[in-house]
Predict the 3D structure of the following.
Amino acid sequence: MVGLLGRVGAVVALLGSLVAGRPAQQVVEYGGVGAVVPGRGETVGVEALTADGRARGLTVRVGRDGRVSYEAETEASAPGRTSAAGRAEGAEPGASPARAACADTAYSTAGHKEYGTYLWHVGDGPMPGGLTRDAARKVFEESIGTITAERNDCGLAGTGGPQARYLSATDREAGIDRAGRCSTRDGVSVWDAGELPQDVVAVTCSWAVTMPDGGPNDLIEADVRFNTRHHRFTDTPGERCSDAYDVRAVGTHEAGHVFGLGHVGTGHENLTMYTNSYTCSTRARTLGRGDVLGLRALYR
Ligand SMILES: [Zn+2]
């Protein structure tokens, strides 16, 4: 049983009864994340940004025949995990094995993309970094804009891929519970803050419809939640910053998930889609080469 958020409870129950052929509230859980099994022909993906850089993600698919399958992301399976050869090429002995952001071509895709325009809302609760709702909206909008414009440090031109538009504030909440599980989707894409598991900084849940031609699944909703219960955030990580995550860095990483990017693993710490964005660090605010290549693979 998933802990539903009060305000959307009625809507969720209604959707549950409208979707024929599956038991309501069937939950798949793996390695500290989870998701309510979506409707036929749909997928749901949950991606967690962790405080220790350990990959955590899960995708649940329901075929048109109602068959449920899932794929869990583990550190060993993260596609960006550095091979021994990559490590030898990229680093001095004893130095960090991470390649520079513009020299690192690693990326992974999560199986969905936004074919039209991502329409999104800001929730009405407290925002990360103590931002007002208007200020948070601006920060989220810029984070999303970094993905849609492919803003990067590497001189790479954007390819004019995905589109996004902010719609309004809403009293709906992100469909993500305090155990880091995606609830049943409510058709409203919401960015907000709340409680998530302690070692998780933020979570994105993305719902999509499977494509008959086998192409990337068609995004229908994506919700983002920042864990303000267990972590501190700031929009101005200067010299005095201590132990707080940069809202824009985290927001840009989560926006990457919204538009279909997956995680890259150890050895790729300088890319936006690495599993940890580090306290007081702004490096994930702009994209590295692998992040851009991932977007090009999806949108060009
Ligand atoms: Zn992530």
User: Anything to note?
Assistant: The chain has one domain: 25-75+105-299.
